[in-house]
Amino acid sequence: xxxxxxxxxxxxxxxxxxxxxxxxxxxxxxxxxxxxxxxxxxxxxxxxxxxxxxxxxxxxxxxxxxxxxxxxxxxxxxxxxxxxxxxxxxxxxxxxxxxxxxxxxxxxxxxxxxxxxxxxxxxxxxxxxxxxxxxxxxxxxxxxxxxxxxxxxxxxxxxxxxxxxxxxxxxxxxxxxxxxxxxxxxxxxxxxxxxxxxxxxxxxxxxxxxxxxxxxxxxxxxxxxxxxxxx
Length: 231
Prior knowledge:
This protein has 2 domains: about 10-70, Arc Repressor Mutant, subunit A; about 80-220, GntR ligand-binding domain-like (Four Helix Bundle (Hemerythrin (Met), subunit A)), CATH 1.20.120.530. It is built from 11 helices and 2 strands, in the order H-H-H-E-E-H-H-H-H-H-H-H-H. It has helices at about 10-25, 35-40, 45-60, 80-90, 95-115, 120-140, 145-155, 160-175, 180-185, 185-200, 205-215; strands at about 60-65, 70.
């Protein structure tokens, strides 16, 4: 095996198994070779192999099933993005600002596809979420979970799982970030979200794009000031 300098042996085995999966075009539900077969094929101990398989389990790539063996799962990037982002940012404001800028650019880049794919039931759901946001704000409560559901619903039919995973991870980062600062600007946030819903209800793409642009035009999504306005 070609081993990278300083790389742990189980990580090398992880890469070898991943290559095996790709080369043979294995699909979710397919079985990996038995433990004995992998030990012989890769020339490693059972302990090292088990470390590699455990890493793949933790990342959601495979599942050890009693009586069957190690089965490939329908892998997605949720775990990867969440852990990479949390490991990278700590509590550093500039890096969190980077994440928010990425979310802004993702939403604005995909907004036309979102508009084209949204169904009437999705727009009705957005209106219902909007009503819940207003109800929460009447009680002067933060509505992060509803805000998140609002935006994820807009992009729910885009059909890009990587986009969904990355956006979910960024929302996790934003959950407890500068909550006191955000609180000062939530009246404006509601207005911006209401404009988005109205544009969708009217099926007015131009108005929808304008409302989305206005949502991200200032505040925490820019680097021009120290405001953490939601809009």
